[in-house]
Amino acid sequence: MYSARKSILGLTCGVLSLVSWQAYSLDNGVYTITSKHSGQLVEVGSAASTDGANINQWPGNGHDTQKWLITNTDDGYYSLINLSSGKAMEVYDFSTANGANVSQWEYGASDTQKWNINDLGNGQYNLINKNSGKALDLLNFSTNNGANIGQWDYWGGDAQIWTLTKVGNIESSPWDPSTTNGAANHWPLTGNLVTHDPTIGYENGTWWIFQTGPGIYGKYSSDGINWNGASPIFPNGLSWWQNYVPEHDGMDVWAPELKHYNGRAWLYYSISTFGSRVSAIGLTSASSVANGDWRDDGLVINTTNSDNYNAIDPDLIVDKNGAPWLVFGSWNSGIKLKRINPITMKPYGPLYSLASRSGGIEAPTIIYRQGYYYLFVSVGMCCSGTDSTYRIAYGRSADIRGPYLDKNGVNMLNSGGSILDAGNSTWVGPGGQDILNTDVIVRHAYDATDNGTPKLLISTLNWDSNGWPRY
Questions:
Q1: Is there a shared CATH topology between the 21-169 domain and the 190-470 domain?
Q2: Which residue from 123, 281, 348, 438 has the fewest beta carbons nearer than 10 Å?
Q3: Tens digit of each residue's pLDDT (9 = 90 or more) over 237-276
Q4: What is the reported pLDDT for 138?
Q5: Is residue 203 among the annotated active site residues?
Q6: Is residue 447 among the annotated active site residues?
Q7: Which one of the listed residues 90, 137, 315, 362 is annotated catalytic?
């Protein structure tokens, strides 16, 4: 059974992107863009975060407003997302005129936000707008700080030539080893199984799980079946937790999230108290889980009683182009999403709402599979043993920002969500799920044969011929 499961996962790193990368002249990543004429960098003026904010030039200062997440758009073009605002570079108002302004706007995949980037050699490029066919241009050949950037017919002058310097990597496309209409496979687990809110990872022949508990408690397995307890990452907690959550006991950590990204293990986690919006998401990372050289990467995001959402239950997602995002939240106004800076692994840009539901919603997980993003959530009530009403629901969207619709077309912002797992007479209230790649799902459920003790469940996640998940 294990060999079949290993075949499903493949358990490999460095899988090539499914995108036809040969058609692109530039690797996806984070870049600065420097004018050949002036030697100054392209930035969003005044570090503005608003739609329509102007794009101009300024001497290099290391600020994120001078860094651009550049990824291909699967049609031979690129999008350029500012690493400070989270907005896209575009030619304003779809103009095709010479001298038209270049500004930023929420990315909508329109042609005016897509650019053909052509390699001229020696690290120099021109950028041609898909909508207008005109080149990114330092207008009037200005060398002044704050000089405006627009578009003009391409003629090859230095004001239209740019040096793109890579300052940050992103991953390749997410790996999808899943099976369509495969056989149900619930793994026969043994060993240390008492678990709540698990996250699962795999690294060099070892499976790892972290879970709710003191100091980020974990467990490990050599075969995914028999589990052994591991020492907590922060056995004495961290002093800064109580700065953001004063009522916290200093030890209890909720719903950790483990992912490998850019050659490092990242673990997000929640600090909160039951029923409160006074919460914080923290981050720790290591060169590898096995090495255990965890460093404290500090606060990611926090909420107070004045917020209408809750900073708990983080989940790191890699989008189809390899860029990272963080989904999180619960109850109140529901599930939220933000972009993640692939250099700092901290959030930036707008806050997006994905799902809301009266009666309880939390524990979001997003994966990308074959053209869709799938949002899994736990709905109902947890933490009451066999009286828990947790169940796992899902919807999907062609855009990571939503809308997420269930199998009946109901928006998850309007209490939609098709049920994947509602439990049974033995395993009550399944939830707190996490998904590895697109084919292994881990969750907890309350064991009715053992006084409602929360225990670990792992299953192969299969998919039907219509692209919906099933066991």
A1: no
A2: 123
A3: 999 999 999 999 999 999 999 999 999 999 999 999 999 9
A4: 98
A5: no
A6: no
A7: 362
What is the C-alpha to C-alpha distance for residues 338 and 316, in angstroms, rounded to an integer?
10
Cα separation, 295 vs 259, whole angstroms: 15
Using CB atoms within 10 Å of the CB of residue 49, give its burial: 0 to 12 exposed, 13 to 18 middle, 19+ buried: middle
- The two beta strands, 162-169 and 55-58, are unpaired
What's residue 24's pLDDT? Answer: 79
The answer for residues whose C-beta is within 8 angstroms of residue 448's C-beta and 6 or more apart is 386, 425, 426, 427, 428
- As given in the structure block, the two tokens for residue 60 are 């290099």
What CATH number labels 190-470? Answer: 2.115.10.20
Please name the residues in contact with 3: beta carbons below 8 A apart, sequence gap of 6 or more: none
Q: Given this model, what pLDDT does residue 156 score?
A: 96
* 21-169 CATH: 2.80.10.50
Q: Which residues of the chain have pLDDT under 50?
A: 1-22
What the block records as the tokens of 121 is 């050699």
Sign of the Cα torsion 381, 383, 389, 394 reads positive
Domain ranges of the chain: 21-169, 190-470
Query: What are the pLDDT digits (tens) for 216-233?
Result: 999 999 999 999 999 999
Q: What pLDDT is recorded for position 74? A: 86
pLDDT at 23: 55
d(CA 132, CA 101): 12
